[in-house]
Amino acid sequence: MATEGVSKRMVRRALEAPRRRLVLDYLTGCEEPVSVEELAVGVVVEETGASPERVTPEQCGPVRISLERSHLPALHGLGFVDWDSRAGTVQSTTRADDGEADGEVGESEWPPALANDD
Fold first, then answer.
1. Nearest Cα to 19, choosing from 43, 37, 50, 38?
2. Would you say the C-alpha torsion 60, 40, 1, 77 has a positive or negative sign?
3. For residue 117, what pLDDT is reported?
4. CA trace torsion 39, 64, 54, 31 (10° rounding)
5. Model confidence over 69-112: pLDDT tens digits?
6. How far is Cα 33 from Cα 54, in angstroms, rounded to an integer?
7. How many domains is the chain built from?
8. Which terminal Cβ of the chain has fewer Cβ within 10 Å, N or C?
9. The pTM is what?
10. DUF7344 domain location, by residue (predicted)?
11. What CA–CA distance (Å, rounded) separates 21 from 75?
């Protein structure tokens, strides 16, 4: 995925969504690709405080759909995740692992790789 044309503004806008930041946090702790279903469980756990064993399919379904329709395509387009929609797997990229997605939205300091973008 080419990301040369990605601006600081595009990254900021993408990371305004708390769920996208949760996705990046979750994936940064994973060494191997995870299924979108496993990721959905992880997001539900973080958003609700439930234990993974107590997460129901009714909770995961809407989260999985939002991941597949909105969040994963956006993060993939920015080069923060490798998402294989056919296999149903996702993993963080070196761009995310190198900290380019760190920081709160609205901070004046951005990672050096994004510092010169408009």
1. 43
2. positive
3. 39
4. -10
5. 999 999 999 889 999 999 999 999 876 655 555 543 333 333 33
6. 23
7. 1
8. C
9. 0.76
10. 14-91
11. 10
